[in-house]
Structure formats: structure tokens, C-alpha cells
Design goal:
This protein is mostly helical and 173 residues long. It has 2 domains: 72 residues; 89 residues, Serine Threonine Protein Phosphatase 5, Tetratricopeptide repeat. It starts with 8 loop residues before the first helix and ends in a 10-residue tail after the last helix.
């Protein structure tokens, strides 16, 4: 029998969310909370942990959360952003296989997973996967930026120019 205080699952879930905001990398703390019984799926539903980890740019924490969400991570199109953010090609392909819209946007910013991949200078494989699954290279965000206009990397810009030969509604001469 263990002695001492054992927090309830709801408290552990609240601690998961609070741990994300720690100034240092919270991966070890989050791993410990999960090992003590924190329900990642319940916390994800309540706090959108994955999306919060993306916003805070916590890739290691994101990997831990996604690995504990398992199959359920594949059915939430918001996790396209997570897969792109950490450069996880296997997860990205698995999510794209279950969702027909690689241009999923969650809010009124109109930012797509391809825009996030460009901003994060994702690997060629991640960029190719999004484009192969139909990501619109010419789609613009709320302020009118396209993936190409967002690119700060010659490698990414060259790949987009090659893979996205011309904007929609433009016929070759």
C-alpha cells in the first residue's frame, strides 16, 4: 500500500496543462504525470493540450502527448498542425490518410498546415506529403500571404516553385 497523497485524475489533467506553461522544457514533468495516471485524452478534450504545445513551440512535449494519445490523435484534423510542427512524417501521413482536407484551418487566421510547414522550414518529405495529398500552394491566410510568400528559406521556396508550378486559374501560354 502506498502512503501519501494521491491526486485524482482531474487534478493530474489540470497539472498537465499547467506544466506546459513552465518556463523550462516540461517534457519530464509531463511524462511523470502520465506515469502517475494523468488521462491525456481527457486533458486533450478539456484543454487542447496538443494545440497549446504547438503554440508554445514545445516539440518534445508534443511528441510525448501525441505518443500517449495513440489512435485518437489520428482522428483530430487539428493534429495535422502538430505533426507538421514536430516534423513527424509517419503521423502526418496517417492523419492525412483519414482526412480529405490537407488545407484544414481551425480559426479565422486561415493558416493551413502547409503554411506552418513553410514557416517551420519543414523537411522536404513533410512538404511533399502535404502537397501530394492536395495542399493548396496558393491558398492565402487572412492577411493575404501564401505559402510561397511566407517562405524565408531558399530550399523551401525552390521546392514550392517546383511542386506548385502555377497558381490556380492560370493556364499555360
Amino acid at each position: 500500500m502506498e502512503l501519501g497523497y494521491q491526486p485524482a485524475n482531474q487534478e493530474l489533467e489540470d497539472l498537465l496543462f499547467r506544466a506546459l506553461e513552465a518556463p523550462d522544457d516540461p517534457s519530464a514533468v509531463i511524462g511523470l504525470l502520465i506515469s502517475k495516471g494523468a488521462n491525456v485524452e481527457a486533458a486533450q478534450q478539456k484543454f487542447h493540450l496538443v494545440y497549446h504545445a504547438i503554440e508554445l513551440k514545445r516539440p518534445e512535449t508534443l511528441r510525448i502527448l501525441l505518443s500517449h494519445l495513440g489512435e485518437s490523435a489520428l482522428y483530430d484534423p487539428r493534429n495535422l498542425f502538430a505533426a507538421v510542427s514536430v516534423g513527424d512524417l509517419v503521423l502526418l501521413e496517417a492523419i492525412l490518410a483519414r482526412h480529405s482536407d490537407p488545407d484544414f484551418v481551425e480559426n479565422d487566421s486561415h493558416v493551413t498546415p502547409l503554411m506552418v510547414a513553410v514557416d517551420r522550414e519543414a523537411s522536404d518529405e513533410v512538404l511533399h506529403a502535404l502537397i501530394r495529398h492536395g495542399a493548396d500552394c496558393w491558398k492565402t491566410d487572412r492577411i493575404g500571404d501564401s505559402p510561397l510568400s511566407l517562405s524565408r528559406s531558399d530550399r523551401v521556396s525552390d521546392l514550392l516553385r517546383k511542386e506548385c508550378s502555377r497558381p490556380p486559374n492560370v493556364t499555360p501560354e
